[in-house]
Specification:
Layout (H helix, E strand, L loop, with lengths): L1 H41 L1 H38 L3 H22 L1 H4 L1 H7 L4 H33 L4 H24 L3 H28 L16 H12 L1
Helix pairs in contact: 1-2, 1-7, 1-8, 2-3, 2-6, 2-9, 3-6, 5-6, 6-8, 7-8
Length: 244
């Protein structure tokens, strides 16, 4: 009975942290799948373009950003454990700077997707469609920077439930916007992608409201010039995490 109680208590602690993260990742990926299904209804040809962009470009960038956001989790976790709560906000701002610069360096992959896919022998019409859709993905991948790093920042201070609530709201909003833009307004591919971008930035704005609105009083003291100092260690840790 004693062992069973210990296992139960440890399992509760694990799921308290893990479940909101699972909900967040499933909701985030779910928005991509929902968009893909709407594009498939609109144009099977553009579905092929969407598929190669999402499979090759977005997953490539997403993998790097998830790895780099792990550095945020490490640094914020250490600061939380050492009770240097004010440093968590500093580390978050440094991570934003590093990740935004990294994403901007990778941006040409999206801007020049059509010639890149042509270079690798993709059918011309699909390469053109992929290039058009890749441009629409630019706001989405920038939203990922803030969504992922803030998620790690909140998880480090055990503020997990808010992540799950925002993610579920995002998924519901995305479905409604996709229906409205694609089928009611008849905006086609642009409508489906606009729904993806709006719902993705909804997550970021909701997280900003939570942080800036005073729900993280110990770890967020406002924007600071200290975020510009000692940034090299953050760059090294982020880059090594991103490569992994």
């Amino acid at each position: 009975d004693d062992l069973r109680t210990k296992v139960y208590e440890e399992s509760k602690k694990i799921w308290k942290i893990a479940l909101p993260g699972i909900v967040s990742r499933v909701s985030s990926f779910g928005t991509i799948v929902v968009t893909q299904s709407f594009i498939g209804h609109i144009s099977p040809h553009d579905l092929a373009g969407y598929a190669i962009v999402q499979t090759l470009l977005v997953r490539f960038v997403n993998g790097i950003l998830i790895g780099m956001s792990s550095a945020t989790e490490t640094l914020c976790g250490q600061a939380f454990g050492a009770k240097q709560y004010h440093m968590m906000g500093i580390f978050l701002q440094r991570s934003w700077l590093v990740d935004v610069v990294t994403m901007t360096v990778l941006l040409p992959v999206f801007l020049f997707a059509t010639p890149i896919f042509r270079l690798f022998g993709e059918e011309d019409s699909i390469a053109v469609s992929a290039g058009y859709i890749a441009i629409w993905f630019v706001p989405f991948v920038y939203a990922l920077i803030f969504a992922l790093t803030i998620q790690m920042y909140l998880q480090a201070q055990q503020k997990n439930l808010i992540i799950a609530y925002i993610s579920v709201a995002q998924f519901a909003l995305h479905i409604l916007l996709s229906l409205f833009f694609s089928f009611i307004l008849k905006w086609g591919i642009g409508g489906a992608m606009a729904a993806l971008n709006i719902s993705s930035w909804f997550v970021v704005l909701a997280e900003f409201v939570y942080i800036f609105g005073g729900w993280c009083p110990d770890s967020w003291k406002g924007f600071s010039k200290a975020a510009l100092k000692d940034i090299v260690p953050v760059v090294k840790l982020s880059m090594s995490s991103g490569v992994m």
